[in-house]
Amino acid sequence: MRQLAVNALGNRREARMAGSLAGSSRVEAVSPKPYSLKPTPYSLPPMAADNPFKRFKPEVGQPVRQPDVTGQTYVEQARKVRQMLRSLSPQKALQLIEFREEMTLFEALAAAKREGKLIVSDYIHDRILNGINNTELLKKFYVNLVRTGTLVIYEKPDKPFGEEVNLRLKGYDEVQYSISFEVPEQFQGKRDCALVIEHPDFEFIEVGKNKYGIKAEKTYIHLIENFPKESRKWYNTDPETKIPIGEPVKEKEKNARLLFRLDYTYIGLLRRAGYSSGATGYVNLDELPFSPRGVAFFPFTEAPESDAK
Fold first, then answer.
1. Separation of alpha carbons 91 and 21, rounded Å
2. What is the per-residue DSSP string for 37-90?
3. Which of 82, 233, 231 minimizes the C-alpha distance to 148?
4. Distance of alpha carbon 138 from its chain centroid, rounded?
5. In contact, 84 and 304? CB cutoff 8 Å
6. pTM for the whole thing?
7. Which residue among 164, 191, 244, 272 is the one 20 to 30 A from 156 at the CA level?
8. For residue 68, how many other CB atoms are within 10 A of its CB?
């Protein structure tokens, strides 16, 4: 009988020890993990942490459908997202795009493909810059120059397009570079025009040492007729791309934009001026591809099919 009591006491002690160990395991399982101090690559600039959208009236949250991109290539996904982005309000688009600083044309294209993102077109930037009246909000994002995803190709005034457009330039490293584009037959012979291709419908291919060619499908090349010959003047814009066209107009006209262009061959991504000068209507088509500029990206995963009503 005494032996049974001893055994029972031992069993109770073992049970209490097991319970204590189990409680210790539970506490350990819910203990918070230490934070990593390592910064995330390509993080947003500090200004984004100030919640610049606090001036907007809160919207009633409603579910939105995400684009179905399963099994699609990068280009197919980007095209679908690009179309969706055009349907968003300027306020919604600004909330979803990501701004980066100091990237060359080649760095921006590589980052977009690597991270599954679209480089935001001039059309979207124009809608944001001229569709949002909150000056302080715009200044937070458009502090510096922003390179868009709109590729523009033109020849010097009065020179018609030939079989190929060639741009030769010297980089900051004093090395001579060249970029060429084979002009589709239907555009050859046209003068005072510009060819426009939106990201991701073009690709820069290295064809030799410091030599690049541009690959693009004919279907996605947009012809801008009556492209202005003169720089630093105000013009109305093409409704599809928001690129200046036609004859000079007065600055006060609603859709007028100030064009900066070169008087010789140009191949590059259109740039929008920084808001520090209040330049919401400045369209820069004189930017070299090696210049480090700001870039705005739109992640595939952020694209709703349309605005929530």
1. 55
2. -PPPTTPPPGGGGG-GGGGSPPPPP---PPP--TT--HHHHHHHHHHHHHTS-H
3. 82
4. 16
5. yes
6. 0.75
7. 272
8. 10
